[in-house]
Each structure stands twice: as structure tokens, then as C-alpha cells.
């Protein structure tokens, strides 16, 4: 007689997206996350273990009668942070701040904590990466000491929750979520299961006590936030802190924001005495020299909803090698190569024998196509030796046929240029622009790149001949 053998089939399931497989793999085949595939004994669908509650503690209410006073934001004392967050810190909200190591996340947060504490708010700063003495010395150096700012260096989740119950802060900072661990969960601090447990516990405590919370998160080598993707879904706001480590400029962007727009940008300047907000950062992106030289052109870029005046510089020199060099900093390398081809083919500028160096001033990165016209003018100015007229800005997208296309946000760009005292603007033909009241800026519309070069260099030639 044949024997019937009962066999239990084990499945492996991704804890991030629910993808299942018959054997273990290191990387999920659906969401491509590493280390999230775990074994499920028995396979199939899990039985529902949660039963209905016997009594409802908080009954459902009509949406019009819900009290929203608890969700009203309060000012943090830092105008640039409030701009990015959508008005300020919201009680019960959880913000995830990520950035590369050494970029200044801890410096920004200790300064922010002191600003909130000076408004008679209880603030708790949990440091898992540095000792309390190290954090205190940094706070003293940047002038971020306050009576209502409490500091603790902890790594245990249960101790962190005990601090919350003891101090009952209005603002909480955990630096960082990867350094806190729970004794009830297996794995080392920073692992997928640990990050999930720590984040869930802190978020639940913050929501229950209406504590505005900021969690600091590490990033991987490709720039993404370390840990499970679930972490970004659990929090209310996800911010990226960016900048060149050797430069002064720091940018704060909101990638996700449940309380405001995600197209706002906060600008900061890193100095020896700390980090300061920059309500008007355009001066940082322009050279300080008063003498006009060839190869420079000013443009107005849009970072979210914020217009920033930036300077593009180009330098061309005859190449000593058969293969000319192309070096680009702060711009898209492939887009600059395209503009070189358009200038040579559509504007009859022989550039195939020249080394080309193109850069922005102040470490700003210009990625939008609206800066094409300014880059092309700077390259042509360096090639011909003609200096562009003073008080001129230019913006517009350049196509492969040499046409200049309209760009979004043109009115905001012109308003920023007029506020800073510019007198002339080279803009795409057909662009709808509303001039600000009382401005003296004059607009010159061009439909092709060749037309723009002829117009600008003709006026520059007339000016130089009049001076002679």
C-alpha cells in the first residue's frame, strides 16, 4: 500500500511589498529591496488573528465637527525650515531628515532645537551617535544653548520611551533612528527589523502625546534612505539635506509632505559659527567681481517655487590634443554637450578644436532646461571674446533645431530679476510674462539661438564702439 506523506511547504515573503518566492533570495524580485525576504512556515495566507473590539473608545464623528486645533503648526524659529515644512512644526507629526554624513544634519537640528526651546517649549534631543558632552560642545560653539533644551545619549528604545514619559516634550529629535535598538527584536541596530520596530514605537508615542518629532536617517552610497522603504511611508514628512561638503551652501528639500507643498526649498549657509538661514541666497550664486569679462552669463533658475539668480561661467581654449576636453561642474554634462553641437551646427561657431570648461558659481546645481540659453550665451561669449551687456539675464530651453522654447514660471523669474535691479532680459518668443508694477526691466524676445546671439553681441559691439 502506498503511504501518503504530508509535507509543509515553506514560503519566503518580502516584508516590504509582500512578494513571495519558493526559495530564499537576498534581494526582492518585486521592489528590489535587499534583506527583506523572510521565511513563512506553512505557506498560504495567514489566518486573521485580530478580532473586533468589544467597545469603541472614540466614536466616529462627522468630518465637519472634527477639531483641528491640535494639528495647527507652530513656528520653529527658523524661517527656512518653516518654509519647507509648510508653515512650521505640527504637533504629532513625524519628520524624517536624511542626508550624507558630515553634511550638517546634527548642526541644523541642534540649532533648530534651541530655537524652539527659547519659545518656552520643552525640547528633548536624543543622541545615539554622539555622547552628551560632544553634542553640548557643538551647541556651545554655535550658540544653541537653552534652558528648556534637554539632552540624553541613549541607544535603548525602552529608555527613549521612558524619557518621553518623564519630560513630555513638545518637540523631539532622535539622532539617529539607525542607532536605536529594541531588546525585544532580534538583529543589530540599523537592521531592517530594528528600524521598523524603533520607528513604529516612536511614531506611536509621538502621535499619542502630540509631540512634533524629527528622526534623522542615514543614506546609502547611492543617496537613498537606508532601511526599509516602509519607514518613508510611516512618517508624515521626508526631507533631504543636500550640499557639497566643501562648500558653504546647504539645501533642504521636502520629498514628501502631508502638511504642505513639496516644491519649496530652504537655503542655508554653513559657517565656522554654525548654520544660518539664507532668505536671499542669490548673492551666493554670483561672482563678486565688478569687472565684466567674457564667458559669463546670468540666469534665473527655479528650485521648486523659489527663483534663484545664478551665474554660468564658460572658458574655451584651443586644445593641444586631438581629443578636446569637456569639463562640466554644476550642470548636466550631456546637456552641455548637446548645446555645443547646436552652437556649432546652428550658430556656425567652430568648437570642435577647443577645450571647453563650463561651471556654475557658488556650488549651485542647475538641472532644468530653462538655463540652456544662458549656458549657450556664456560659451559663445568665451569663444568670440565679446562681453555680454551688464544688467542682462537670459533663460529659455534650446532645442536641437536651434529654437528657443518657452519655460514654466517665467513671470516669477522676471519678478526676481527686477527685484535685484536687472535692466534687460532675453526670453523665448511667445512666452507669456506679466511684468511687476514699477519695474524698469526690458524684455527682448528671441525665437532661435542664432537670433539671440546676434541681438546680444550686436548690442555689446555698439556699446564697446561708443566707449572707444
TrEMBL record:
Residues reported in the UniProt entry to bind ATP: 99-106
Residue ranges, annotated region (Lon-protease-like): 355-468
Stored Pfam families: AAA_25 (PF13481), ChlI (PF13541), Zn_ribbon_LapB (PF18073)
Intervals of motif RadA KNRFG motif: 256-260
All copies of domain RecA family profile, residue ranges: 70-219
Superkingdom: Bacteria
SMART domains: AAA (SM00382)
Nucleotide-binding among keywords: yes
Alphabetical UniProt keywords: ATP-binding, DNA damage, DNA repair, DNA-binding, Hydrolase, Metal-binding, Nucleotide-binding, Stress response, Zinc, Zinc-finger
Listed HAMAP family: RadA_bact
Function: Plays a role in repairing double-strand DNA breaks, probably involving stabilizing or processing branched DNA or blocked replication forks.
Record comment regarding domains: The middle region has homology to RecA with ATPase motifs including the RadA KNRFG motif, while the C-terminus is homologous to Lon protease.
Similarity-based family: Belongs to the RecA family. RadA subfamily.
Record protein name field: DNA repair protein RadA
Organism the protein comes from: Micrococcoides hystricis
Lineage per the UniProt record: Bacteria, Bacillati, Actinomycetota, Actinomycetes, Micrococcales
